[in-house]
Amino acid sequence: MKANQLGSRKKCTLTDVQSAVIETFEDISQLAWLGAGFTLGSVAVILPYGALYSMFSLKYLYIAGVVLFELGPVLCGAAPSMSLLIVGRVIAGMGGTGLYLGGTYISGIGFVWGVGACLGPVIGGLFSVSKATWRWGFYIKLVIGAATAPIYIFNLPNVHPVREISLRYRVKSIDYVGSVLSSGLWVAFSLAFVFAGDAWRWQDGRTIATIIVFGLLTILYMVQQYIVSALHRRLARFPSICFGRGRRFLQPSALRPLIRHSTYRRIIITVGGSLLYVYLKPETPTASIYGISVVLAVGTGLTMQIGYAVATLKVTPEDVAKSLSMQNVNQMGGTTIALIIAVLVFESAAVRNVSGVLEGKGFSDEQIRAVIAGAQSTLFEHLSNDMKMKVILAITEAMQTPFILVIVSGAVVVVSSFAMKREKLFGEIVAGG
């Protein structure tokens, strides 16, 4: 549980330190990587890490994840350039996968994650405005990790799921080709859609080539999995394991109409996204924004773990660990896709809106992007009060556009959930790691 709190705190700390980071390195073009780097590192190694969890010592794999997770923030805090900071984020994401896969008590993960999400912006904000600087927003993870190290080193049991199977057979059973193809397609997707429209033009040969590579890797991965993975074909019989995201405080013996409740919760998410799209304006009181955000958070929290709960009930015990790995791919992969698309939509709208307001004022594209990213800028000092309000309104309108994704995706899930089989699930939640 501590691991999940650290993971959510790490993600959310960046929210408040990103403007300070950009001001330090004066590099706006890689803004999207600050958020996407962590989730990319996670989703790229989830499948091989999940396979290792089903075949080797859970304790030592967990400790390996902690080491990577702590190494990433150290590199981020000491990074002399934006590129190295992004590498640190990717490494931390890779380590975070080991911590996330190691969670046994599914019902409590959402709660602990939420606590970390609340603490992250507070801690990051305090460091970003203090003499310690934003770098300690990353270093603090090392301090917390060192303080909690005795717990997982001395108290975690050394559980080995398949000790009786030979090491040679376990090593041979890992899907190396599938792991490489899976990692490659996520990297290609991120490169194509983070750089497109900013560092690279859409018609740039590099953009086109990267998108083609992404498409080819996706097709190859699907064909390879269809041919070599009998597990994939077994799990495909149970489409409901990929539906939804989480059920909090699920009781060991369940007799609940999960699909009906999931529909209600997705409606809450759709309502929250709609309210933010409509009411996110400069004149809207801060308290109202917080209240609407709580509505969106409630819907998210109530659905975040439902896929894991259903997966443990719909597959055989020997497939539980691998089905949970599939859920991790769904969750972290979905986060990566949504984050990249949201940033792409926001940046495009913001640059277009602000450039239109400041047209003919003599400001460079770099200055405009610095303001959009939240970095301190002297741009406002040269504007009249009326022009400042127009710039603020332009940025706020751009902030509304990513919530269209929330509305559309929420509506699609609500409609599609009515077509799913309505059933009550019996059984006991099986720990997959």
UniProtKB/TrEMBL annotation:
The keyword Transport applies. Keywords: Membrane, Transmembrane, Transmembrane helix, Transport. It is a multi-pass membrane protein. GO terms for cellular component: plasma membrane. GO terms for molecular function: transmembrane transporter activity. The chain crosses the membrane at residues 31-54, 60-87, 99-124, 136-155, 176-196, 208-228, 263-280, 286-311, 332-351, 391-415. It is found in: Membrane. Belongs to the major facilitator superfamily. TCR/Tet family. PANTHER family: MAJOR FACILITATOR SUPERFAMILY (PTHR23501), MAJOR FACILITATOR SUPERFAMILY (MFS) PROFILE DOMAIN-CONTAINING PROTEIN-RELATED (PTHR23501:SF12). This is Major facilitator superfamily (MFS) profile domain-containing protein. It comes from Trichoderma harzianum (Hypocrea lixii).
